[in-house]
């Protein structure tokens, strides 16, 4: 029977241990909290300090950096990148290859399309069609 974790060395020479999430087999670092009902697809990397709520769906190839928060029922499409400290609200949808900057906030229910860039610290809210709402 194969092991249920993998060790990876980071750029500073430290070894980080990632376990395979029971629902999807994505890699979750020690220190991250992922609800058992969340789906973390294979090829996704969840870094230490990340919190992923119930019902969230993390696509393949997604990278979520330390201390980001993913709300309940949020959907992160394949190959998106959620930078450190970002927060994605309840039921928000993040498109394919979209980058959410460090400490950015995406309001619950927002729809962020494919190949978008949300800047560091930016706060974004959209309607169900993806049109940005006034701040």
UniProtKB/TrEMBL annotation:
- What GO MF annotations does this protein's record show? transferase activity
Task: Give one Pfam hit by family name.
Answer: Hexapep
Extract the InterPro entries matched here: Hexapep, Trans_hexapeptide_repeat, Trimer_LpxA-like_sf
Alphabetized UniProt keyword annotations: Transferase
Return the PANTHER family for the record.
ACETYLTRANSFERASE (PTHR43300)
| The protein, known as | Transferase
This protein's species is Microbacterium aurum
